[in-house]
Fold Short chain dehydrogenase.
Amino acid sequence: MTTYFVTGATGFIGKRLVARLLQRPETSAVYALVRETSRERLAGLARDWPGADKLHPVPGDLAEPRLGADPADLPHLDHVVHLGAIYDLTAGEDANRRANVEGTRHLLAFAAAARAGLVHHVSSIAVAGDHAGRFTEADFDLGQRFGSPYHATKFQAEQLVREQPLPFRVYRPSAVVGDSRTGEMDKVDGPYYFLPAISRLAALPRRLPLAAPDLGATNLVPVDYVVEAMEYLMHRDAPSGTTYHLAAARPQSLNSVYNAFARAAGGPVIRAVLPAGPSGALRRAGGRLAHAAAAGIDRVPGGRGGRAAVLEELGVPLAVLPHLTMDVVFDTARTTTALYGSGIELPELRDYAAPLYRYWRAHLDPDRARRTHGLAGRTVLITGASSGIGRASALAVARKGAKVILVARRASELEEVRAEILAAGGTAAAYPCDLTDGDAVDALVKDVLGDHGAVDVLVNNAGRSIRRSVALSTQRFHDFERTMAINYFGPVRLILGFLPSMAERRFGHVVNVTTQGLQTDTPRFSAYLASKAALEEFGLTAGRETLSDGVTFTSVRMPLVRTPMIAPTGYRGIPSSSPERAAALVVKACEERPEILSLPEGRAAELATLAAPRLARFAAHLAYRAVPESAPEARGLPRRSAPASVAAAVTRLIWRHRA
């Protein structure tokens, strides 16, 4: 029976290799070094692995001497597989040295103490550095130089392995991309940095012929080839020190890499490549020009930071640019011979670029959340969803194909709305919450993100209205506090809770349901209009800050709507809109995302105020005098008829104006 000890078992290559080792009939145990923070992740991965009962986590860390583990606690180890490392060109020198060099040193000390049978070291073609020409599997130190801490530390790590006494083998994969069958990949690296640009070029006609110079070459291999080849080669007889290049025997030109992904994206391909002479001259001239431009920019204060920021926004780290092409050709003769008859062959990139692109587009494209148009497939959270505008809006967006998150205080009414959406074939979830309770709002955000991953659109609809004149409010400051709590503080707390995840996904939209009263300054609604004005202004201001993060805001200035909220106001006889028409405005705000959405009558009122501000103020005051108070406190006050009240107000204004 065979035992294995593996570092990097939860990594991109490691998890696939461990899964294959567990399925080997002769495997008795696989011991995986894991930090405490990774134990749960390993357990989650292992749930889907046949033979997972043979997997045993070993607490430890590459940063600790002998990994912080005691070899005496383990049986004899036939194979020690070292995959743990930093595979990141953007990481700094200290991080690379700690993980790649010191981590390897600690692993070798552990293996020596355990008297391991065979050490398998996963190195990299990065050890070739700036070598030009053929680099064989027997080559190592040819006087090459290294352009990054990653390249240098991978060389130093392999050197440590070669200098220690235990039997060993070395595997040098080239740039590893996703699975050639499923496209699965765990991070953006290598050619993935340029897929956003290729996806945008797909907007051009497919038949558009492109011409380009020879852009140089790279070397890519899919992860499934690396894992299958490594598992097979690990168990073949070979002398200590045998090295395998898990790479393409012929480097892939960047032109062919572009064409493979462009075809997958449905974009135009390069049909004409300039000959080597002109291509080389163009590359050299372009390189000199780019170097001169970069040097000029870097001399400007803040220039280098600005250049890095622009590249970061384009998805290409500054540290990656010098390593896009290579002049080295990796000889794979030993690997090819060893794999002969195994059925393991390196596929051509053109044959598996499509699944790589599809997986990237679905899971790794930083702008994937922005691609969906309309509401189908979106997650929309609506507050005040148990009745009125909120209920009608929830039903409307559900009909558009959105997943609706229903929020309100009353759980029973929320459940009725959810049941109605489900009965119509929609998707909905209900979360009872008192939006005036800050802790409850924070818990709501946490629960929704935990259950649904993200919220695409947040509709702040819940609110309360108070119709009471300022004269009757002098002893009722709590009215203003309560109104601000539900109309302003609750929505703002929700926005602040969801904003980080929206910015991270580069997409999010907030719909703040305000009121047409902001355009008319309707008397007796000072508490209500002030709270809605605060919410609208928050959205307008925040939207200017978050625009490049992909997070936008809309303020919907609703007219008077027949809902339970207006029942106490005494406006039941005044023309008002239906909840369904109001919901149509909410849907429009979600889909079109204007900054402010208002109706013609509201805009007309604004224009009238701008054209004749004194007359507008005078008319509003007379309307205030003509309409009686509806607040309970007014019942004991003397009342005048509407004509009498208006006449008195006009007289008072004219008489005092003359005074």
